[in-house]
What does this fold into?
Amino acid sequence: MAMLGAAALAMWWDMAPDMRAEFEHWHTHEHFPERLALPGFMRASRWADAKGGDGFFVLYELSDHDVLASPEYLARLNAPTPWSRKLMPHHANMVRSQCVVLASAGAVAGGYALTVRFSAGPDNDVRRDTLMQWLPQLAAAPGIAGAHVLRSDAPKIGRTVEQQIRGNADREADWMFVACGYSQAAIEGIEHPALDAGMRGSYRLSLCMVPGDLKEKT
It folds into this structure.
């Protein structure tokens, strides 16, 4: 098993407590279905801060990198729904990374996830290579189900309407490590020298959807 597709969209943001209920309602019943109806969107998962904070981590798995600049996706980014326009300004401290998948081992949607984000740095190639070699061993460890390494590779497109609504420019991680599993203690206990320089966050799974979930069965 591994991540679906060769690309991904990884995002982190904070949502104020007084907007959280409406945000999760919108994200579940409008936004995820809207995105998963687009060509190349293969799976969507939303994760909430495992310690009860305001943070969310969202991961879209994509068939290939071209999806990030497809006409269908750009059309949605530049024509948000009224409900999206209401919620977008409340996405605070947005980090949005459009990625290629460098390495992937095991499952993606476990009960808990650890993300480690990295800024650009001279030792990143060594860190990534070391982690990529470690992934199969980590993915097979007790409490862990999968581990993945992604690198940002933003397509050359203009600033979208959604970005304009959010106000401040989205930040971007240079690359990231994502691990998931069924034990919160195991996930939060992941340690490796190559992870030391990154920004860690731990999350619990809130929702996972695939395009087939949009089809009603009778």
Remarks:
- The domain at 7-214 is CATH 3.30.70.100 (Alpha-Beta Plaits).
